Amino acid sequence: MQQLPSHRHSPWHAGEKQLQEKAGVAERMEVIGQKVIRDYMPDQHREFYQQLPFMIAAAVDGSGQPWATLLEGEEGFVTSPDPRQLSFDLAAMALDPLDPATPGLGSGEAVGLLGIELHTRRRNRINGHILQASAQRLDITVEQSFGNCPQYIQLRQYRRVPERGVERIEASELDARSAEMIRSADTFFVASYVEHDDGRRSVDVSHRGGRAGFVRVEGNRLTIPDYAGNLFFNTLGNLRVNPRAGLLFVDFATGDVLQLAGRAEIILDSPLIKAFEGAERLWTFDVEQAVLRPAATSLRWAFEEYAPTSLMTGTWAETDARLREREQRNQWQRWRVQHQQQESTDIRSFVLAPEQGAAPHFAAGQHLPIRITTATGDTLLRTYSLSSAPSDGQLRISVKAQGVVSRYLHEQVQVGDLLDVRAPLGSFTLNSDTHRPLVLVGAGVGITPLLSMLREQVALGQGRRIHFFQGARTLADLPFQAELRELMQGADGLLQVHRALSAPEQDAVLGRDYEQRGRIGLAQIKAALSFDDYDFYLCGPAAFTQAIYDGLRDLNVADARIHAEAFGPSTLTRRTDGQSVTLVQPPAASGPVPVYFTNSAKEARWTPDAGSLLELAESRGLAPEFSCRGGSCGTCKTRLVSGQVHYPNPPAEMPEGDGVLICCAVPAEGEPLQLDL
């Protein structure tokens, strides 16, 4: 960073300003920078430096390569004779001649310093120049001084051992030992610098921390996430102007020191940024020189705990797993039927598991896409709600025998057979982050996602009261009765089951086999509940869910407390404060619109009577995947290349990003439409 003589001038150079502008904080940082960046050390900083056993330094060698290194000594080896000077007594522990940073620590050279105390998570920074350098002493004049926050600093206690190593292993690429040291690191330091127009040089050194595994190693390239910080962008601002950098890794258990020289590149836009938890941007580092000095420091640190901010971030192993799972969600896989069980007259459960790899994660309430090929060669796709809970350790669908695909599953599929399955989908999911009483209301096979939610809530054991409403025509049609009895026994009196039969058998006993005669409706729900602040989850035929929803809203139950999923092509019409919710979206096209299907190189002309984009694609011979045709399952989601769409009947959950649910979308007024089909 450039220190200018007047407080009226900016404390930031061009690279820092560019990144601050991209982050939308340029004006704010202009004010903050002039307040917190000083040309002297406050007394508390001076006192802090003077009790440190080591400091991190950055210097630039004769070829213009920056290096980061560790300067150490007995506590008190750093002193500050005045607020603008810092001195290092090196008599007891001289600079290591094997250290590649040593040639840059000469009189007149620019230097960056970081004082960091791992056992208190304190750190402060200095940029300056070397007034005097000798084997016995370094005197630094301060040009910029500022504090840093404790974020991402792992807590460690230190001790000292009698001897330091005297070996230097140099290479032009990373060997297995160095690569493993980087992969297991939770901390490293980075040196960078800029050259100013007047020929002056400003050198910087900073700390980077995260969970072990936050640095990716691919050959000689490292990829590093950049987390939320102070928005100064000192290091990345330098790299924006000058990509040359030096990295320092310390094995805190052995005292090994690994110093890397190379070039960095900042990545501001990449799918990896969203995939890596906590990352706001990425940067890469290409190793050109590696220097490993075994036991180069006499200090040893014992790990105590991660910084709370570090625990909120990811690792590359987790990121890669998340990306693989995301990729698998769009691919069909072979799953084997492990178990079958008849749950009622026309509902059968199937326990499924992937033929290869682990089962994907899912949320209670989601559904599983299934694809079959009929005897006539037709490929059909349907989605079936999962009736198992994430905590069950298995994936189970429960299917009612209605329609071609469900009857195929009932009549043809046996234990051991393989099915084409995609990873779970759906936004009708249980919110477990509340202790409000839970009301689950399902008609017929609509009970399956609610059973998943019920099983999960009982397994969580959060003390949440649950009312489970289940309806069917006869007792023989009422599924999961033995399972519900077991759940009631395990719920410690918190679960109440309300069963309604519209045409019970003569031997079905009211009060024993069911609680209400007739169909489930608002009257039965009102009779069972003393209305309070509940969370309602509704699932069943469209008319059923709409009627229950409307009745609850008429009783002033907040719209946000009612979650619903309807069968068939209809979606729920919601109301807020007695009015229909108006989705902010572009108006539907009123005339013909060209639609291009980029993947298949086909085009069509949509007109207002052409129906949905799914129907338009089918009319051109395309076969997009779909299931519900109502926007509730997400199976038909297609990437929008360009243009805009309108939803005449908006889905319950709008797709994220550039996804379009083509089963319920039409072109919007304006430009032609391009879809990735």
Short key terms for the protein model shown above:
677 residues; Pnp Oxidase, Chain A; Elongation Factor Tu (Ef-tu), domain 3; eight-stranded antiparallel sheet; seven-stranded antiparallel sheet; 14 helices; 38 strands; 35% strand; disordered N terminus; oxidoreductase activity; 2Fe2S_fd_BS
Give an account of the 3D structure.
- The chain is α+β, with helices and mostly antiparallel strands and 677 residues long.
- The protein folds into 4 domains: 14-317, Electron Transport, Fmn-binding Protein, Chain A (Pnp Oxidase, Chain A, Roll), CATH 2.30.110.10; 330-421, Elongation Factor Tu (Ef-tu), domain 3 (Beta Barrel), CATH 2.40.30; 438-580, 3-Layer(aba) Sandwich (Rossmann fold); 593-675, Ubiquitin-like (UB roll) (Roll).
- Helices cover 18% and strands 35% of the residues.
- It contains 14 helices and 38 strands.
- The strands form 8 sheets. Strands 9, 10, 11, 12, 13, 14, 15 and 16 form an 8-stranded antiparallel β-sheet that branches. Strands 2-1-5-6-7-4-3 form a 7-stranded antiparallel β-sheet, with helices on one face. Strands 21-20-23-18-19-22 form a 6-stranded antiparallel β-sheet.
- A hairpin with a 5-residue loop joins strand 1 (54-60) and strand 2 (66-72).
- The longest helix is centred in the middle third of the chain and has 14 residues, at 316-329.
- The chain is elongated.
- Mean pLDDT is 90; it is low at 1-7.
